[in-house]
Amino acid sequence: MLTVFLLVGSGAQGLAQDSPVLSTEDLSDIARIEDYLNTTTTMKARFIQMASTGETSEGDIMLWRPGRLRIDYDPPSPVVITANGLFLVFHDTELEQMTHIPLASTPAGMLVAENVSLNGEDLEVTGIRRGANTLDVSVIERGDPYAGRITLVFTDRPLRLQRWVVLDAQGVTTNFALIGAQAGVTFKPELFRASKPLLRRSNK
User: Fold this and answer.
1) How far is residue 91 from each of residues 18, 70, 100, 144, measured CA to CA in Å?
2) Distance CA 153, CA 140 (A)
3) Which of 48, 1, 5, 43 is nearest to 179 (CA)?
4) Residues with Cβ within 8 Å of residue 199, at least 6 apart in sequence
5) pTM confidence score
6) Omega before 75 cis (within 30°)?
7) What tens digit of pLDDT does each residue of 35-94 get?
8) Burial (0-12, 13-18, 19+ Cβ within 10 Å), 11
9) In terms of C-beta density within 10 A (0-12 exposed, 13-18 middle, 19 or more buried), how is residue 4 classed?
10) What span, in angstroms and rounded, lies between the C-alpha atoms of 18 and 44?
């Protein structure tokens, strides 16, 4: 489940590509997306996570920018993922084991950054796709273009984050879809500390 936020490994040659030439419309849409992400301070939602390997799971996500994130997976998964500044913490509550990953090295770091810049010093936009009331933007790390790609998928006018799709270096695709997302909510700071999980749903 680390695939959601961690693009691991290198050497997946098909992931890298030449830098695209961005049009004026592309640059305008990138600016709109950055403004939307930078003005979204808090958000909570249900989610469905589907991987190309056939794995499917559900749970709750909470986001509090800058730097804070919490994901609680529904049973039978024992996984809780939290971020509170520097690290993304993967907590297996059954084994009582924690894995700490630098937040800035994961796609989660982009979503909870203090200043989101999709096409700046660290990240590069590799493509923009427009559909009927949808807008997708794909991004890679400039320093490691073979590590993987994240595509943010929005409904458009008004702009709302709908889901993101992570393609990792092994070619596994993970689709993380938000359900009933609410912005402007209030959280207690302790929710974003790596500790005990919330009361888990047992009727799934």
Assistant:
1) 37, 11, 9, 26
2) 15
3) 48
4) none
5) 0.85
6) no
7) 999 999 999 999 999 999 999 999 999 999 999 999 999 999 999 999 988 899 999 988
8) exposed
9) buried
10) 36
User: 92-116 burial, b for 16+ CB within 10 Å, e for fewer?
Assistant: ebeeeeeeebebebbbbbbbbbeeb
Beta strand 134-141 with 123-131 is antiparallel
**If you ran DSSP here, which 8-state letter would residue 118 be given?**
T
Instruction: Tell me how far CA of residue 113 lies from CA of 23, 34, 42, in angstroms.
Output: 26, 11, 12
Give backbone dihedrals phi and psi of 88, rounded to 5 degrees, phi first: -95, 125
* Spatial separation of the C-alpha atoms in residues 151 and 99, rounded to whole Å: 25
Residue 149, φ and ψ in degrees, nearest 5? -140, 145
Residue 122's contacts (CB-CB under 8 Å, 6 or more residues apart) are 141, 142, 143
Closest to 110 in 3D by CA, of 53, 159, 148: 148
